[in-house]
Amino acid sequence: MSTLEVGKIVPATGTAITLGDSGDTFTIPASATLDVNGIIDLTGATKTSFPSITTASQWRLTTDFTGGVTPIATNLEEVDGPVGFGVLGSSMTQSSGIFTFPSTGYWMIKFDTVSSAAARVAYNKSIIMTTTNDSTYVEAAWAMAFNVSSPATYSSSSVVYIMDVTSTSTHKVRFDVAVASGTTTWMGDTDHNETCMTFIKLADT
């Protein structure tokens, strides 16, 4: 194997240089640095080991319930349709409303709710609750919706939180709802998303 030592490579004509032939492999040794200050064009390339979103899934409430709960613990399913839905990578798992992440990393958690009330209601609160010790949960993020008239009206809310999950055994999430009046009904359906939870892994931790 020969070694070529030069300070700079420039094209003989034009502005393009071709390195090697089809099927060749160029190796950058361990601990070496490829410092790119311009643009890397990967159009048409097969990309491996580049940072990208590799894990995403959704869960939903399958039937309505009335009042506040801590947490939503029953009638939950991983979304499976109606048409074209797909889970990317590994799924979240849940037991009695406690959700476990399939891998460590920075996770975006989104909680969408749809609610209805038969009378005026001061607030309907949707809450993302997180723990880092598999025991003590805190309000990580919440959103508020209102029913301002009667008879029955509908409201929706959406709340998002990014969690740095460094351990899948201790870092978990649950979803609570609180109401000012017991007349509030949280809406769910097994055929489409109404009240639902979305989980997307953004990057490794």
Quick structural gist:
By secondary structure, the protein is mainly beta. The protein has one domain (55-203): Jelly Rolls, CATH 2.60.120.40. It has strands at residues 55-61, 65-66, 76-78, 93-95, 98-100, 105-117, 121-131, 138-147, 153-165, 172-179, 184-186, 196-203.
Report on this structure:
- With 205 residues, this protein is an all-beta fold.
- 0% of the residues lie in helices and 41% in strands.
- The protein contains no helices and twelve strands.
- It has strands at residues 55-61, 65-66, 76-78, 93-95, 98-100, 105-117, 121-131, 138-147, 153-165, 172-179, 184-186, 196-203.
- Strands 1, 2, 3, 6, 9, 11 and 12 form a seven-stranded antiparallel β-sheet that branches. A five-stranded antiparallel β-sheet has the order 4-5-10-7-8, with no helix packed on it.
Domain count: 1
Largest sheet: 7 strands, antiparallel
For this structure, the CATH topology is Jelly Rolls
The SS-based structural class is mainly beta
Helical content band: under 10%
Question: What is the CATH architecture term?
Answer: Sandwich
Please, what is the average pLDDT?
Answer: 90
pLDDT < 50 stretches: none
Cα radius of gyration in angstroms: 25 Å
Strand content: 35-45%
Counting DSSP E segments of at least 2 residues, the number of strands comes to 12
Name of the level-1 CATH class: Mainly Beta
Terminal Cα span:
39 Å
Helix and strand element order? EEEEEEEEEEEE
- What gross morphology would you assign? elongated
User: Helical region count?
Assistant: 0
